[in-house]
Amino acid sequence: QVQVVESGGGLVQSGGSLRLSCAASGFTLDYHVIAWFRQAPGKKREGLSCTSTDGNTYYADSVKGRFTASGDNAKNAVYLQMNSLKPEDTAVYYCATTPTYYCSGWGWYAPSEYNYWGQGTRVTVSS
Asked: Following DSSP, what letter does each residue of the chain receive, concatenated?
């Protein structure tokens, strides 16, 4: 059974950092792309990054240069390092996956691209 479970959320001050983790089970990262999304209250789910099996990663403009996605195939885990956090980064953060080698170059940021989702972890950035 394919599962992804996020952890690492919490409360952080503006300018601070957090590292989110996504533990994968029931599949390996050799044949699944991993994406990070977030959803703030009253807003649509926003695609933040997608990492292909070759390590290539797409980033949304809103987080490029501040967030870094990485993976550890040995641990079957993926991480999202978030630096220079802003109050507008406050949201529930999700990892998602689907069985394919490469992120879609034209639609990686669309939630419909991913079959499996975690339950989310909440990040709150105070000003």
From this structure: --EEEEE--EEEETT--EEEEEEEESS-GGG-EEEEEEE-TTS--EEEEEE-TTS-EEE-TTTTTTEEEEEETTTTEEEEEE-S--GGG-EEEEEEEES-SS--TTTTT-GGG-SEE---EEEEEE-
